[in-house]
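Page 37, continued from 36.
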């Protein structure tokens, strides 16, 4: 059984597509139930597994969420980290967390996606011919 129903998955996918209309950045959402290690390490592991480091401009962003363990992280690739401040994702995480605390995971993820799209637009504006290099589907993981 998926963690989100079809309508919820559709909302997240549309939020990814909308965010990517404003930027050449590539955004993915990765979800699993449990995270048995440091959340940033886990997110980095999936970032690599999903081949997000292979984008042309190294401007991929992963929103990772472990639902049962109530952990999440936002990580960006080298191209993003070179140009943004160190605390770049902190306010985004706070806005997402406000929804998570109310039990609305989908709204929290959608909020994060919207803000990520706005942030990325400043540093990596969308340009004609920008390819969608990564799937917009949610990556559901079973723990590895």
């Amino acid at each position: 059984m998926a963690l989100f129903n079809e309508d919820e998955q559709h909302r997240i996918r549309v939020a990814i597509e909308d965010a990517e209309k404003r930027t050449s950045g590539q955004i993915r959402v990765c979800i699993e139930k449990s995270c048995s290690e440091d959340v940033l390490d886990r997110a980095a592991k999936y970032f690599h597994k999903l081949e997000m480091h292979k984008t042309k401009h190294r401007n991929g962003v992963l929103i990772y969420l472990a639902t049962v363990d109530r952990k999440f992280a936002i990580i960006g690739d080298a191209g993003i980290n070179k140009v943004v401040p160190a605390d770049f994702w902190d306010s985004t995480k706070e806005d997402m967390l406000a929804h998570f605390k109310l039990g609305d995971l989908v709204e929290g993820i959608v909020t994060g996606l919207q803000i990520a799209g706005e942030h990325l637009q400043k540093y990596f504006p969308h340009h004609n011919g920008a390819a969608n290099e990564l799937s917009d589907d949610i990556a559901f993981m079973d723990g590895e």
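The two ends are 18 Å apart (CA to CA). Flag for discussion at group meeting. Helices lie at 6-20, 39-49, 78-81, 90-101, 105-123.
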